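Hey L., structure's done. Input below.
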Amino acid sequence: MKIRKHLFLILSLLFFCTAALCGCGEKNVAEVNGEAITKSAFDSYWDNLGKIYDANGETLESEMKEVVAEQMVYDTLLQQAAEELHCVPAEADADAYYQEQLAEDYGSTDAAAELMDTYGLDDDFFYYQYRCRLLEKRIIEVLAEDTPIAVSEEEAQGIYDENPGLYDFRVVSHILISPY
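Output:
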């Protein structure tokens, strides 16, 4: 039940914060529980995402700006939830996870660094993506410790059918690119 409570809280906050995304002044794109998502942070995220799309021969459409802003709100909520649950990883743990994931996803950290250099991508952007995934992992682990749950497929479908609009959103995650 605790998992459902926290998940509901995170999703509710995401919904309410999304409403404030497109008109919050020049300096902030959104505010999440008093924490600002600055325009410069958004622009940096958008720029790196655009480079990834370009590297894959695709175009990042301006309609995606709302989705990117929602992802940044979600990531901020992850950080806040991890702080509340006292499961924020130490920098050394986050760094180790980052290095491990780069090696796993790109063959080696050197290959990942070369790819980032080739396409002009910011290492901080990748670090941010992997750190957010580690936050998700830690939150799930903490919540799973508190209340082990078992939900049948029928129960899950019933929960979804009660309010399908609640689950109609996109989450942008890290995007892997291949130079080939």
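The helical segments are 2-18, 39-55, 65-84, 91-106, 109-119, 123-146, 153-162. The longest helix spans residues 123-146.

-- N.
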